[in-house]
Amino acid sequence: MPVPKKSAAEKPGTPPRGPRSRIQKRNRQIILDAALEVFSTHGFRGATLDQIAAEAGLSKPNLLYYFDSKDAIHRDLLTRLLDTWLDPLRMLDAQGEPQAEIMAYMRRKLEMARDFPRESRLFANEILQGAPRIEQFIRNDLRQLVDEKAQLLADWSRTGRLAPVDPYHLIFSIWALTQHYADFAAQIGMIRGAGHDPLDGAEPFLEQLYTRLLAP
Questions:
Q1: What's the pLDDT tens digit per position in 51-62?
Q2: Per the structure, how many domains does the chain have?
């Protein structure tokens, strides 16, 4: 699909201004999908604009019509991801039955590992680099949400509705035991064999693990 030409008033590398046409929206999405593949495979430092352009089926100048740098593409992807990343924890309901709520949260995280493996690896790569582009998100939005839900978990333990557990490490363990299936899918595949679903059997195992851990 041809990309619209820049007007003479626009500088090279300047993203288009004003309302976007259907073609512009589609080309931006094609670039973001390609960038997600490249970043999740090579990380931010290993990815290049040439790789993203090739994955998108566009020339590098065409790509630069929409995004003026690799960092701009990466920021856009992370911005879209972060709100989605909080949703499963936000849904932990203070009015629900504690064990059922925690099991539902664990299942939502497993579903994200299955449905959004590239997004999970994008997030993991950013964290491994020290989270330079999302530090404020982690220190503010994510920390505030985790503090809130940790207090809820602590209240459930204090009132005897859950076994005594460290609420922060409970949350961290759910992250580790679910996101592993996306971030280390290649390792699981090498161990379990080609064509094996990395998440096969994960849900009943984690249900058994957390049921025994959390029973009052």
A1: 999 999 999 999
A2: 2
